[in-house]
Amino acid sequence: MSHENPETIADQAREWLAEYIVKKDDLKPKDRLAIPSQEMPAQDPIERGKNLDEVALGFTMEQARLEALRCLQCKKNTCVDDCPVAIDIPGFIKHIADGDMQAAADTIKESSLLPSICGRVCPQETQCQEHCKVGMALKDIDKGVGIGRLERFVADWERATGNIRVPEVKPATGKKVAVVGSGPAGLVVAADVRREGHDVTIFEAFHKMGGVMRYGIPEFRLPNEIIDQEIDTLNKMGVKFQTNYVVGRTRKLTDLIDKDGFDAVFVGTGAGLPYFMGIEGENLVGVFSANEYLTRANLMKAFDKKESNTPIYESKKVAVLGGGNVAMDAARMALRLGAEKVYVVYRRTEKEMPARNEEIEHAKEEGIEFHFLRNPKRILGTEDGRVKAMEVLKYELGEPDDSGRRRPVVIEGSEFMMEVDTVLVSIGNGSNPLISQTTPDMSVNKWGNIKVDEKQKSSINKIYAGGDIVLGAATVILAMGEGRRAAKAINEQLANELAVQSN
């Protein structure tokens, strides 16, 4: 990210582009490697810590074309292999370099209907960009081609110009498919199944669509209007939506097939059941799961104290426990909600943190303090039951555990007190047991995740599953990849049934 004046960045990119564009068809690999990688313009760190506007401002046209010229157009497309939904990455990037943004958008949409979202929140550095030949040649993954940033640019261009094309839908087949959950996996299934002409209804437990993308990711990373636009595309395709509908309570899962006449069901309910540490004081007022905290702020607009009916806890000193992206989101949201001090407490070192480097750096820039090799022993409260402090232990790293990361080991006698009034627990999530509890024939593993075969099919005929309810907590793009596989299997099932009916 760059905090230079966006106009200065644009002027520099314009100069470089003028130099390289005239010879773009004759650029050799060494010439492309010499093109400067483009930094993403961003809000000033101090200013953005006071608002919910998007932090990253997006590439200019000149930056996008210049960044696209860095692509080597490799014969072996490792970037495509590493993309869970197999977007034709060299193809759409070449269209950007050529200045044909509509062709770039159309190329992406062949594989993904959510480019505005994936371009913003996917961990490209561990997926499509991880083995980028440019980054490998420069010995720096961060200097690889900015695939995610280019994907975002194309999607934003499409939205800004009003050229969003609705995918073609085949003639009606008479088949009905239910999608349970409107997160990334569910939306992909709805789109891919609807394209084949099948009737699709999405059932969402909340009052708004979008799943974890809406309730879990703050608007400073993913504005709600972008989620709304992606949902609107599905609406224009003819997908139906049923909100405030809790499958397992409003209706049993199997009833969707047995009583409501759906020919197939996809379960994409996510992993929204937060884990806690099980330490003394976790029941005090002022201790929340990061999930609840973010849901109140993101989905229920609790930050708008004049308009929202949902309260948010008033905090001055906040400790966030954990080191993932959700922890970063919670910490940065607490800052924006008025906290004077925000601490991230993590029991390993920064090297082991699962959060994206970009999110960690953003948090640091905004003034959030990191306490590594630390973990709470207990939480202390006031006489009226509110958080007043944490007793914290110091750790050192021992031998690697099953995850491959070095195991944190307590340093005996290292306890110290940390004064806080709010604790946000972000140490992971499990699957909501509602589906498995109300569907006894559904096979799940010991963590409650639904077991599926290679086609995402569950142990119950005609019921498929994917995303976090299968994987545990994963990423948007991995959930989309599972949705794509499930949609393919559902379409195959329905095609076979239609063939039998026609004979």
CATH superfamily assignment of the largest domain? Answer: FAD/NAD(P)-binding domain
In whole angstroms, the N-to-C terminal distance is 60 Å
Tell the overall outline.
Answer: globular
Helix-strand category: alpha/beta
What strand order characterises the main sheet?
3-2-1-4-16
Work out the helix count: 20
Q: What's the CATH class of the largest domain, please? A: Alpha Beta
What would you call the quaternary organization?
A: single chain
The main sheet comes to:
5 strands, parallel
Beta-strand segment tally: 16
Number of domains: 3
CATH fold annotation of the largest domain: FAD/NAD(P)-binding domain
Based on CA atoms alone, the radius of gyration comes out at 24 Å
The percent of residues in helical segments reads 25-40%
Whole-number mean pLDDT: 92
How much of the sequence is in beta strands? Answer: 15-25%
Assigned CATH architecture of the largest domain: 3-Layer(bba) Sandwich
Spans of 5+ residues with little confidence (pLDDT < 50)?
A: none
